[in-house]
Amino acid sequence: GVELEQPKYQLVQKYIQDLISQGTLRPGDRSPSENELAAIFGISRQTARHAITGLVSTGVLSRRRGSGTYVGYKSRRVGVCITYLDTYIFPDIIRGIDSALQSRDTSLVLMASRNDLGLEKNVIESMLAHQLDGMIWEPALTAGRECPDDAVNLVLNSDLPTVLINSPLPCDSVSQVLTRDREGMFCLVEHLLEQGHIHFGGVFCSDMAQGRRRFEGFAARLAAVGINVPFEDIFWYESGDLTDSHNTEFQFRLNEYLKQALADGITAICCYNDQAAQQLLTQCQNSGISVPANLAITGFDAAERLQVPHSSLDCPLLTSVVHPCAELGITAVNELFKLIEGDEPRSIEMPVSPVYGRSTERCLRL
Length: 366
Description:
Blueprint: H1 8-21, H2 34-41, H3 45-57, E1 61-64, E2 68-71, E3 76-82, H4 90-102, E4 106-112, H5 117-129, E5 134-137, H6 150-156, E6 162-165, E7 175-179, H7 181-194, E8 200-205, H8 209-224, E9 234-237, H9 248-263, E10 268-271, H10 274-287, E11 296-298, H11 304-307, E12 320-322, H12 326-340, E13 347-350, E14 353-355
Parallel strand pairs: 3-4, 3-5, 5-6, 6-7, 7-13, 8-9, 8-10, 10-11
Antiparallel strand pairs: 1-2, 12-14
Helix pairs in contact: 1-3, 2-3, 4-12, 5-6, 7-8, 9-10
């Protein structure tokens, strides 16, 4: 029989699809215009328009009014397993993730582990059952364990493109987007050293990877100037201690530590995060201890700025380090799509910046 010649508009469509499959054109790139296609194939603009319209109707391309035609994003499903959904810095991280996914025609499966290893494993199993295109995971407690647990093994054996946030794991098969925890604590200690403090204490979380990273930064900066903090001058707690604000045993232990710290001549205490710092500030207030006259206190994450716009504060209450929150969420999404598109995993550390408040220095109003 006679072989029929393929319609020219189909040749144009195949040309564009080949450019996409080869990676020459990536999602979000501008596609060749009608005029360019007409010149390449020696066809009319009407035929070129017919080819583009067909690709737009199937989602391969998308038209933007007054701008042109662009390579479309394949509709995808992304899972996010994060510690909490509705408290502290987490809503801002989720907001960043969601804003980045909206521009990519991607649906979101969102679940919380609530710092519970058993629940986290169940959440990961559920995520993998959703047939996702990728996952963003905050392995807060899991990353603090010496041996990989079930949740880690599930993810590593799944071949699912995965980006870890906040807490690192010692593996090179996933991307990681972290904060510069050690550097942030360096800044806080440097600030206190500049103010003349030489007797330091610390309140740190023992079962969180970030807790250890921040403690390492704290201890390293002090060791560099010859200050070694005795073990008894560090108050260690577990993440579950702060999940219940009425944990009287925790508050009793913290109060006993505070009294001993002052008796030992400690003048500055660095805390793992703002939640721990707030607990310490409350103990000081209840005990009539003046901050910062009797004791300087620092936090980490600058959660205060999430509730009150920083520009409206003459001076923030708590000296802390700004967690990039939404920016970290956006970066995690961008990294995840690079993995989905075949890029190699990598580790990124987000910048942190200190914010100095009334808990370490008296702020002068201008």
